[in-house]
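Milestone 3.1: sequence recovery, worked example.
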């Protein structure tokens, strides 16, 4: 009789230990590092998506401006070349190499500058300013710049959250024991004042 009673008690006891241990592990942050790492990757994908969205607008924008300001060839060429450079840098979200990230940031800032100059040139041509296609592209570009700013902000915050987790207790312990192959993530470099914001294209 005692043996029969002891069996379910033992099974129940083991199950209770497993449940308590699982709850403790879940509550002590063991899953935070991979969770935050995935958030960094997701945030980076959004950064790339929004910059690509901007790059996709450039060819139509250039051709529209060219139709009214063909002799502004130097400015148009600068935009095309800056776009080509900006879209040539591909970065693996799981391996945010510091040098590549700096190159990516510099290339995107160069494109922002070229677009700003293009918009300044467009102000000299009233017919271009009233062209519906140009106005639509201009509006899309403005909206994309806002999306870029949001995506950059979210990425910066995700990287800061992840890096803080692996440098502070208990995350630092779990990083040493279980996730040592997951390095500190590189963030956007503060090369200019308010660098956490996307470089703004001035339309007016």
């Amino acid at each position: 009789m005692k043996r029969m009673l002891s069996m379910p008690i033992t099974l129940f006891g083991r199950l209770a230990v497993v449940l308590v241990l699982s709850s403790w592990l879940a509550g002590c942050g063991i899953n935070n590092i991979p969770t935050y790492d995935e958030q960094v990757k997701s945030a980076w994908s959004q950064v790339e998506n929004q910059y690509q969205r901007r790059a996709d607008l450039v060819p139509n924008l250039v051709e529209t401006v060219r139709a009214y300001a063909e002799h502004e060839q130097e400015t148009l060429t600068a935009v095309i070349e800056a776009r080509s450079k900006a879209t040539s840098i591909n970065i693996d979200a799981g391996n945010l190499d510091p040098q590549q990230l700096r190159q990516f940031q510099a290339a995107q800032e160069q494109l922002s500058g070229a677009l700003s100059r293009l918009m300044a040139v467009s102000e000299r041509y009233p017919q271009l300013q009233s062209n519906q296609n140009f106005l639509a592209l201009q509006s899309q570009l403005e909206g994309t710049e806002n999306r870029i700013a949001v995506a950059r902000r979210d990425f910066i915050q995700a990287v800061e959250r992840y890096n803080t987790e692996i440098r502070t207790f208990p995350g630092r312990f779990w990083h040493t024991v279980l996730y040592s192959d997951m390095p500190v993530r590189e963030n956007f470099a503060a090369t200019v004042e308010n660098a956490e914001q996307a470089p703004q294209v001035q339309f007016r």
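Residues 119 and 203 are 6 Å apart (CA to CA). Confidence is low (pLDDT under 50) at residues 16-25, 191-200.
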